[in-house]
Design brief:
This protein is of the alpha+beta class. 20% of the residues lie in helices and 30% in strands. An eight-stranded mixed sheet has the order 39-40-42-41-43-44-45-46, with helices on both faces. Strands 3-4-5-6 form a four-stranded antiparallel sheet, with no helix packed on it. A four-stranded antiparallel sheet has the order 7-8-9-10, with no helix packed on it.
Length: 855
């Protein structure tokens, strides 16, 4: 046996507890006599090449964008090292690609443009300057050339001007003559009052030195006069509007300001100043300076309050503002967390009583007088029960109607249980709720798209209220909301076909793992398939709204670009061919898409890699197997497109050729399967997924000849978390596990993600204890490998280090930790990928009893 360690942390000189390279046994003997011959003749890429910079197998095009005349597509391809990308222009009439060099990149059209109401003009930014495209004349005009950064341009409601921003200033450019007007600014401060003398010295100085007082009075008078001149002069920028003079806004700061395209009024969002919560520190040990350098990252979940917003309507003609009543939102005062709060209060009271009892016992034993006991809440006297306070909310989006008269707001409760769509229909209007979505778990991160119809008659939006992301339309005239689509599938990426009475959307209607483009009629919701490419497809509509640029992939085919004519009933035409000869030369093992039976009744969609005929024969007890657990929690990997986990695909191909069955499951919490699948882990993160893994193991043993005593599991991030939960909470189910960049204690993760699923540690401590692997480490059986990048600012390396200490204290032996000093959450260097997967492969070879081919 031998040791190769880059870093050792020893509890004693004789017993290594953490080692970057574990104790390695001699390489196992080949299981089959012909194994070496197979390796020599197959000519397959080895592990190093499989983990190399991905340009070795493909340079896939990025999501394309159109030229403003619709005659060309632009996209980027990665270059070796992934530090830069080449920009390509694809001429659609000739099919010819050309690279735009550094001197030509500025000639590429903008990726994002904003059109006027009749789609004759489009405005965009390039290099921080404004550009105007005339679709009729097919000409572009540069509007500004400044060192400032002009941003967020859009047309005024009358189409005669452009609203844009320069830093914090809001400006309007008149298209007819290029005149630029700066809009008046506002803040939440009060008008500064003259300083009054304070203390003896200041008072005596003001009393004795009259000239000082007189000078200050003259200065104040001149300032007031200048402000009056500015306010009365239409050619001057109006003075700052101090909302604090007329509104109760103490302690608030401006969060966001959205101007009506009519320029008549604005919506102001304000919230209390953010607190300075303690943040974690991430040390970097390998630095250019040679010194350890630390950077502050995020705070832990639940340690700081989310910022509740207030909403104000500012009327510029009268320079007045009024607060909009958020209390009109349905169920705003209803607390979905009331039971958890009551339970937390009871726990706190019980702990307080236990502490008092303990102190009383100590006092009695010591014979001294104790302090007067504190009055309990019940002894405070009768109190009138107040009306429940409205919960805090935040405005996540503001959309202005085409005529600029109404604002459509998306508002979310800070506990993320409610989402409201509400209108503000004019300067004198109050907030009018239009749609309310409640989720007892949490409102999903996706499926919150909303936009006005181009004619201003209403708006469309997505909602999961049926349990699936479906499309709805609200008609202003009738004040009704219609559900356009229905079914157990998910819609996203909605775009209106202006003037055609239809919408486009991306959907997995025919199979959870196939994403195509649908055309949906606004009148009755009838939908027809626009694409039938059979994998995962995204679309970008051209400026004329007649064609789609598609980015599509299949299981064994990385992303390519396609062109689809919306009017022609012909299949999409492939435009790019990006895979390299080294990739094309290999007949890769294509995973089959299977449905794993489950104890909860719904099938678990999965990818299954089975060994080819050339693989070593199975032992009498069956083949070894590996379960791969995808990351992110809410992510889909058992689809019919090219996986973002391409390195894992290559690794699974290698395992299958070595005689190992690989199962890649979209366990509960995965994306693509509706709200109930997503929210199954609320307050029980880690348990529903384990049940699915158990069903997966049973499926492999019963149907695919797998030896249940030779199964491993691995995954990164959320997949690493689940690997640890499997190894700790289901001892014996897996003989080996590799947990990569894993969350080990959810109380140490970020607030935005974790609080949705587990609430806060104060409200649901048992959920955090039950869902955190570090609490279950005593159950470890089998061999465990942990790998973590030390520059990971998502899941900090301390998660794995804390777990290592826990395993040391529990005197567990069969585990190792590999730390990567220069790697973030997603590794960047091919050498690190090779090192990590070499360790994973060695672990599985040793513990599951097989020899890898083409290592």
């Amino acid at each position: 046996m031998w040791i190769s360690c880059a870093l050792l942390l020893f509890p004693s000189p004789a017993v290594p507890a953490v080692c970057l390279s574990r104790l390695l046994s001699p390489a196992p003997e080949p299981q089959q006599a012909e194994a070496s011959a197979v390796r020599a003749t197959q000519g397959l890429p080895d592990l190093r090449q499989r983990m190399a910079d991905p340009v070795w197998f493909s340079r896939p095009p990025s999501t394309p964008w159109w030229s403003l005349d619709g005659r060309a597509l632009y996209f980027e391809r990665p270059t070796a090292g992934r530090g830069t990308a080449e920009l390509f222009e694809l001429n659609l009439s000739t099919g010819q690609e050309r690279v735009l060099g550094a001197a030509e990149r500025h000639l590429a059209p903008p990726r994002r443009v904003t059109w006027n109401a009749n789609r004759t003009l489009a405005v965009s930014t390039r290099g921080g300057d404004l550009y105007l495209w005339n679709a009729v004349a097919r000409t572009e005009r540069q509007l500004t050339r400044t060192s400032a950064n002009e941003s967020r341009p859009r047309f005024t409601a009358d189409g005669e001007g452009l609203l844009f921003q320069v830093g914090g200033a809001r400006r309007v450019l008149r298209l007819r003559d290029g005149f630029v007007d700066e809009l008046p600014n506002l803040d939440l401060d009060k008008t500064e009052a003259p300083d009054e003398p304070e203390g003896f010295l200041e008072e005596s100085q003001a009393r004795l030195m009259k000239v000082l007082t007189e000078r200050r009075e003259r200065d104040d008078a001149r300032a007031a006069e200048r402000e009056l001149w500015a306010a009365s002069d239409p050619e001057r920028v109006a003075p700052v509007l101090h909302l604090g003079d007329s509104l109760e806004v103490d302690g608030l700061e401006r969060v966001g300001l959205s101007d009506a395209p009519t320029l008549e009024y604005s919506l102001l969002r304000a919230a209390k100043s953010s607190d300075s919560s303690k943040r974690d520190e991430m040390p970097a040990y390998v630095t250019e300076s040679s010194y350890v350098e630390s950077s502050a990252v995020r705070p832990h979940v639940g340690v700081s309050d989310r910022r509740a917003e207030r909403l104000f309507l500012v009327h510029w003609a009268t320079r007045e503002a009024r607060e909009l009543d958020l209390g009109v939102l349905p169920l705003i005062a209803d607390d979905p967390l009331e039971e958890l709060r009551e339970a937390a209060a009871e726990r706190k009271q019980a702990e307080k009583a236990e502490k008092a009892k303990s102190e009383d016992a100590e006092t009695s034993a010591g014979g001294s007088e104790g302090e007067e006991p504190e009055a309990s809440d019940a002894e405070d006297g009768d109190k009138d029960e107040d009306e429940p306070e409205p919960r805090g909310v935040a405005v996540s989006s503001t959309r202005w109607s085409p005529n600029g008269e109404s604002a459509l707001l998306t508002i979310r409760s800070l506990d993320n249980k409610d989402r409201w769509l509400a209108l503000v229909a004019g300067p004198e209007a109050e907030l009018e709720p239009v749609h309310h979505l409640r989720d007892t778990a949490w409102i999903g991160w996706g499926f919150n798209e909303v936009e006005w119809l181009s004619d201003g008659s209403g708006f469309w939006f997505l909602s999961e209220e049926s349990g699936w992301s479906q499309l709805y339309v609200h008609e202003l005239g009738r004040g009704v909301t219609r559900r356009l689509t229905e079914g157990e599938y998910e819609l996203s990426s909605v775009t209106e076909l202006v003037g055609q009475g239809a919408l486009l959307a991306r959907a997995n209607r025919d199979h959870p793992g196939r994403h195509e483009v649908l055309r949906i009629a606004l009148f009755d919701g009838a939908s027809t398939a626009v694409t039938e490419l059979g994998g995962r497809t995204e679309y970008v509509l051209d400026p004329t709204q007649q064609r789609l640029a598609l980015r599509s992939s299949r299981t064994l085919t990385p992303e390519e670009l396609f062109l689809k004519d919306l009017a022609a009933p012909v299949p999409a035409r492939q435009l790019t061919f990006s895979t390299e000869p080294a990739f094309e030369a290999v007949q890769w093992i294509e995973p089959s898409h299977v449905e794993v039976p489950s104890r909860h009744g719904r099938p678990i969609h999965a990818r299954l890699y089975t060994p080819p005929a050339s693989a070593p024969e199975a032992a009498d007890a069956g083949r070894p197997a590996v379960l791969f657990v995808h990351g992110a929690g809410y992510l889909q990997n058992a689809h019919f497109g090219w996986s973002g986990y391409f390195r894992e695909f290559f690794f699974h191909d290698l395992l299958a050729r070595s005689g190992v069955v690989v199962l890649d499951m979209d366990y509960r919490a995965s994306a693509g399967y509706g709200r109930d699948w997503r929210a199954a882990i609320h307050l029980v993160m880690g348990e529903p997924e384990l049940e699915d893994f158990e069903d997966g193991v049973a499926f492999l043993a019963a149907r695919h000849g797998v030896d249940p005593a030779r199964i491993g599991i691995y995954g990164g991030s959320y997949g690493g978390f689940m690997t640890l939960m499997a190894m700790f909470k289901r001892p014996g189910l897996f003989q080996a596990g590799a947990a990569l960049r894993s969350v080990t204690d959810w109380a140490h993760y970020n607030d935005g993600y974790t609080r949705n699923i587990l609430e806060t540690p104060e409200l649901a401590p048992e959920s955090y204890r039950n869902s955190s692997p570090i609490e279950w480490a005593e159950g470890l059986e089998g061999a465990l490998l942990m790998c973590h990048g030390m520059l990971d600012d998502n899941v900090l390396a301390k998660d794995s280090v804390r777990l290592a200490q826990r395993l040391i204290e529990l005197e567990k032996d069969d585990w190792e930790l590999s730390l990567y000093p220069l790697e973030p959450h997603g590794f960047r260097e091919p050498s690190s990928w090779r090192d990590e997967y070499s360790r994973i492969l060695s672990l599985f070879e040793r513990e599951l009893g097989f020899e890898a081919l083409n290592r």
